[in-house]
Design goal:
A 5-stranded parallel sheet has the order 2-1-3-6-7, sandwiched between helices. About 30% of the residues are buried. It has 9 helices and 7 strands. The radius of gyration is 22 Å and the shape is globular. With about 290 residues, the protein is an alpha/beta fold. Helix 1 (about 20-40) packs antiparallel against helix 4 (about 95-125). It has 2 domains: about 20-130; about 145-289, 3-Layer(aba) Sandwich (Rossmann fold), CATH 3.40.50.2300.
Length: about 290
Amino acid sequence: MPRATPPVAATPKKSQLNAQGIERAIDRLQERIEELEAFDVRTLVEGRSPEINALEVAIKDTLGRCFGEHTSVFNRFQSAADLRYFSMALYGHEDYSTPTKRNIANAIALLQQAQRTLREDLADLEHDPSAAPSPTVAEAPILSRRVFVVHGHEEGPRESVARFLMQVGFEPIILHEQANQGRTVMEKVEAHGEVGFAVVLLTPDDVGCVKGGTPEPRARQNVLLELGYFLGRLGRAKVCALKSGALEIPSDFAGVVWESMDSNGWKQALGRELETAGYEIDWNKVMRG
């Protein structure tokens, strides 16, 4: 007897937002449009830059917040996140600026159309309030794919983690890349602390010991301060500590699980921590990282 073909699940049209959620979604899309308009293509190096990588992640994250990932409306607009131009030339000078400008213009047009779609939804709600989603149905929380990277002096681990996060669809937030605007370090941390997850890099940048003891390698004091800050803000389940080299771990953080960066296994470990925290992870990208 032939095996029955399982029914194909229908792609949901879009997530249901109330009027306040729609207005916030329109504002978020406007923020992405303004960031695209402000992007300077002269910063491109062979078509790439950290800023354009971050923009792609931010646009995809915003569209997911507005319409729900894998919905038909999300699929309609998701090409707005395709900003980079990939050259097919094997040799010779290549113009990356012109095609990247074209991609940015296309992204802006798509995001503006997404805003129009939301404004029409808002008008429909105002015309027929009964169409609003029931307040008794709890919506699943949307996890921000912004990840704060706490680091010390060593650039290698910081760049490796940032590159890996971008590759698997997250936006790394690195403090020294953000404008100071006259703020102290902790004020900057608080200003950019609206993240869904934090990765803390424990590297042997300093030495220290108890009075009369033998100095041992240890992480910088500001790194430990920020580790404590994000443990309090996000909870232990959304903080992953990565340790590089031999260094002292303060006893106050004995309950914090850390992973070693001294082998490539840290990528799989970080992927597992992100997945456990509720994120969807493309394990093919993790294994290629």
